[in-house]
Amino acid sequence: MIKLQNISLRFDERLILEDVSLNVEKNSVHVILGPSGAGKSTILKVILGLTQTDQGKVIIDGKDITTLSEQQILAIRRKIGFVFQGNALFDSLTTAENTAYFLSYFTDKSEEQIKRKVKEILSFVNLNGSENMYPDELSGGMKKRLAIARALATDPKIILFDEPTTGLDPINSKAILDLIKKLKRAGTTSVIVTHILNDAIMIGDVLSVISEGKVVLSGSVKEILQSNNQFIKDFFYEIYYDESTSNKIKAELYERA
């Protein structure tokens, strides 16, 4: 569904991405992780066509978007949902109005159809009864679910998540991860940028670990954790060497299997 082929990108003299290749399968959860400044969020911008690359191809549903006009890219971008790290909600709009925002602008649905769609989406993300609340009345977890609801409004095939659980407590983090799993069961393809190892392992079908703009390794959770690559061992130090964390991860992998 999404292929990055030999992507490289510089800002001035600084190398941001170097020869990056990724393959995101349809109806999968692909997690991109690595240290701060490794280029993770830039990859999401490249997929959206918001950042032009110096070389390589970005193929979405068989189309290389690096060869398309801005108008053509916009048509593809509308089929992709994006959940910002800071949520980017409109403070002056209610929960229902935030959810309906892109429906009003980018579809020809009637007002009644939009109301039904908003109700359906808010139910899907477990925000029933919050329609008339404003963002500053919501908890951190509720704000994140609202951001996901807004991303879902136009029925995207793909959703990109930038650090979806950062700043959330364990209960709300689990709720967001469960929602991403629910989206997968509904047929959505997710690409997630995170630095939280447990999150990546809990939900990722494929993990791609990057460092200094390069892909160190891509593979299943099992393949990653069995790697002898020293950077991988250092990055996943807690998973390898903290017994309680290791046991928790093993239990989760057993349950997923």
The proportion of residues forming helix, as a percent range, comes to 40-55%
- Main sheet, how many strands, which sense, barrel? 6 strands, mixed
Mean pLDDT: 89
Terminal Cα span: 24 Å
Number of strands: 10
Structural class assignment: alpha/beta
The outline comes out as globular
What Rg, in angstroms, do the CA atoms define?
19 Å
Strand order of the largest sheet: 6-7-8-3-9-10
N-to-C series of helices and strands: EEEHEEHEHHHEHEHEEHHHH
Counting H and I runs of at least 4 residues, what is the number of helices?
Answer: 11
Low-pLDDT stretches: none
Would you mind describing this structure in some detail?
With 257 residues, the chain is α/β, with parallel strands linked by helices. It is built from 11 helices and 10 strands. Strands 6-7-8-3-9-10 form a 6-stranded mixed beta sheet, with helices on both faces. It has a 4-stranded antiparallel beta sheet with strand order 2-1-4-5, with helices on one face. Helix 4 (111-124) crosses helix 5. The mean pLDDT is 89.
